[in-house]
Amino acid sequence: MKRARALSGGLTFAAVASLALACTSAAGTAARHGPVGPVPAGLERFYGQSLSWGACSSFAKTPHDQKTYADSSLQCAYLTVPLDYANPSGRSIKIGLLRRPASDPAHRIGSLVINPGGPGASGMSNAASLTEVITNNDLGRRFDFVGFDPRGVGSSEPQVVCRTAAERDRERLMDLNVDTSPQGVAKTETQEKADDEGCVRGAGKDVLANIGTRDVVRDMDVMRSALGDEKLTYLGYSYGTRIGTSYAEAFPKNVRAMILDGAVDPAQDTATQLVDQGRGFQQAFEAFAASCATRTDCALGSDKSQAVAKFQALVRPLINQPVGVSDGRKLSYTDATIGTVQALYVPDFWAVLNHGLHELTQHRGDTLIRLADNYYGRAPNGTYSTEMDVFQSVLCVDNPPIKDRNVARDVDAQYRKVAPFLDTGEPPSPALDNCAFWPVPSTSRPHRPQTPGLPVVMVISTTHDPATPYQAGVNLAHDLNARLLTFESTQHTAFLQGNNCVDHAGISYLTSLTLPAEGTRCQPSS
Fold first, then answer.
1. Which pLDDT score, from 0 to 100, does residue 191 have?
2. Is 238 a catalytic residue?
């Protein structure tokens, strides 16, 4: 459910020129005001807190962020929230915020809060990278563009860190879940348990128990008040749609506007979501293969019907013999398939994937491992973001685990059937994943959202989205009584990615609350 990111580790754009910030809070000052909107009992000091905005450089946690956060038009601050909302007088934690203030203060609407998904992706990093996109449209002119790092992520404190960089590199070479023999299953489950123990050591059970979406939406309502907004305007991508949906359930009357792009259906259980996602990636692989077949240099050949077999022939030998990479590492089977999956998120990466598969025919793995690095959040200097550690932590807290090995085997069999390009050729595995051994209970269950009092919000769903299938968006729009916009393309998410039809509809809605007509469908730009 991750959003696709550029190979440098983010949706990167050139830094924008410094903008006049008249009539907004100056960097280094605090915007002081009391609580805005309704305040749950016992949380007055959090809802009424002042935010001290300043330069963002000290908030950067990755090499990519060090570049983008240097933009002088950006401001950063910490939001203080309770670790456990059931005990607001107990331990407090800090949520990192980044904003690019509205360039037209006289016509400012409020804050537009963004979450890019994951779970575990940095909203601060994403907002910083999108500043050039929104600078010259009404979003940049009329909204403070605000990204936040959910609890455990990036600049927020404490971080959730479960493994060292060296441990992650080693684990990527282990090809877990490939060997489905009893010995292989035991090896996989031993490593899953070790990862869980690392999360406990690195974060503590109290943090892990309160890391899920249930708590993130409470943080977001505190943020709404601290930002000075009576109602929330929100843009959520992929897993960010689950945050948005959960916020709408908890605070339906606090929503002004909401775009949910690349929807997660909260009514689906983990197994159904996984199989549907596998089906989506198979469709994206087939679209890649069809496009590739028109090229004279296609690594999978000119017959798209043979693409799965040719791909398997390229990647399966890596199970026993990884290939070298120029930085001294080895490309494993897992990394080759993860790199392929990363490239299938958007067609812009398909040429890169073809190049990587050509390299593999020459026993080189540089391009595919860079794609896998991008998925895992590994920077060129060998450090990792917190994204994958938070990813596993949130999913384990948000969803009831599968603890029956027969069910696990059935799910794996279904996944191989719907996504044959990822089939190792081994029997389905009964191995349990790390959520089966997670040290704290889950805090949510699959359900259809109930949102009485919610205004009509907007859902964007892409017909051949590999990570969050189209029907999930249709279902979510129905359950929220939302307006559905359909984008007819093969990619993950669509808004602010250059399609004029999608962008015009979304910007008009966020600024003027004018929804697109029922049944609106957008085509890819020519």
1. 97
2. yes
